[in-house]
Task: structure prediction
Amino acid sequence: DIQMTQSPSSLSASVGDRVTITCRASQSITSSLNWYQQKPGRAPKLLIYAASTLQSGVPSRFSGSGSGTDFTLTISSLQPEDFATYYCQQRYSIPWTFGQGTKVEIK
Amino acid sequence: QLQLQESGPGLVKPSETLSLTCTVSGGSISSSSYYWGWIRQPPGKGLEWIGSIYYGGITYYNPSLKSRVTISVDTSKNQFSLKLSSVTAADTAVYYCARVAAVTDDPLDIWGLGTRVTVSS
Result:
């Protein structure tokens, strides 16, 4: 299985901050990487697919980059509604696997 | 707007079979532009992909669960289902059904609300 490792596991940030979350794959997954946001008690929501394509309806402050083994999710200006847990997911090979999550908390 | 809704027992006894159904509303389950999947999340933990069913009934399962999992589609009811046999406490989780968009990198673009399943005697 391809292991997905996110860093940090949690972070504290203020409204307006630029936030970057990293996801590293245990082997190359080309650009087969998706990002999700999950709020407590809610289902995950797709933010970005194919490493850098913004899902329809997702604010442009979210962006993704990377290829191979290293990927980043960036929130350019953190908003109150962005406090949540973020997961990366690879679909390069079966089984599809998720990172352990990065919890973004209010500073 | 397409919506997914999971249904099934919230409590299953150890060694029994967990059976869940996902009802798709607001769109057809038979579209070749999408396929369908199940994901679970144990309490306080991360997400685990269980498996997916493609147009035409082709299935792919997580090897860690493959011997116990069956995913099927009932197009007449616009539903797809998950069966997980020989459950243990480790199968306690929130179970989500999701639509998979048949575009680059097959993102899980619409999710159900999730249903909590507890395995306990």
